[in-house]
């Protein structure tokens, strides 16, 4: 992946999104994340439009269903020429294997979500009744994803060193919850700066509001790239 910064598109409508993209130089190569909100509004035609403009696409749908349903869904998505797709690692070994089988023949990387960055130890213990420490739960799910064919995981930067240790250095770690030093944390609990994420071993970082809600959006993107490359 030649672009380490993935921009999370969190716009209310397609017009706002295109206006945002038009603020970047035409030759600017961008990696864009389309999440559930925008995908549910605009679907595959929106994905197709962005691919035709030359953007790489991270389709963050976090699929989580019975193995056969996930496999058939991935078979459809395999035709879309997107670069990355997410599932939930907590769906289990059969679901992960089925997702990978569904993507066979495509270049789409399969990424498994370990623990959402909005969840901390309190929620894990009290609400989900998981007895493991957060970092142990994350690494267990990462190893499950690795052994069942996933290409990488979505995780906090803080867990990347442990994930690489139980999987492989080539196992992709894509990190959301990235905030520049000057940015507010918002609803994320396990956060890191771009430079911290790189030092911890993240392969790619996902950044939304610090770029999309900045006054000078292109400059905000450039600053984050520079901070990553320090």
Give short descriptive properties of this protein:
single chain, 230 residues, 10 helices, 17% strand, globular
Structural class: alpha/beta
Number of domains: 1
- Second-tier CATH architecture: Alpha-Beta Barrel
Largest sheet, order of strands side by side? 1-2-3-4-5-6-7-8
Count helical runs: 10
Assign the CATH superfamily: Aldolase class I
Instruction: Give the N-terminus to C-terminus distance in angstroms.
Output: 18 Å
Any idea of the CATH topology? TIM Barrel
Task: Count all strands and give the number.
Answer: 8
Query: Quick one: biggest sheet?
Result: 8 strands, parallel, barrel
Mean pLDDT across residues: 91
Binned strand content: 15-25%
Shape: globular
Which CATH class is shown?
Alpha Beta
Describe the structure.
- The chain has helices spanning 14-21, 36-52, 67-77, 93-102, 121-127, 134-147, 160-166, 194-200, 209-212, 217-228, and strands spanning 5-9, 31-34, 56-63, 84-88, 109-113, 152-154, 172-175, 204-207.
- By secondary structure, it is an alpha/beta fold.
- An eight-stranded parallel beta barrel has the order 1-2-3-4-5-6-7-8, surrounded by six helices.
- β6 (152-154), α7 and β7 (172-175) form a beta-alpha-beta unit.
- It is globular and about 45 Å long.
- It starts with a strand and ends with a helix.
- The model has no long low-confidence stretch (mean pLDDT 91).
How would you summarize the topology of this molecule?
Layout: E1 5-9, H1 14-21, E2 31-34, H2 36-52, E3 56-63, H3 67-77, E4 84-88, H4 93-102, E5 109-113, H5 121-127, H6 134-147, E6 152-154, H7 160-166, E7 172-175, H8 194-200, E8 204-207, H9 209-212, H10 217-228
Parallel strand pairs: 1-2, 1-8, 2-3, 3-4, 4-5, 5-6, 6-7, 7-8
Helix pairs in contact: 3-4, 8-10
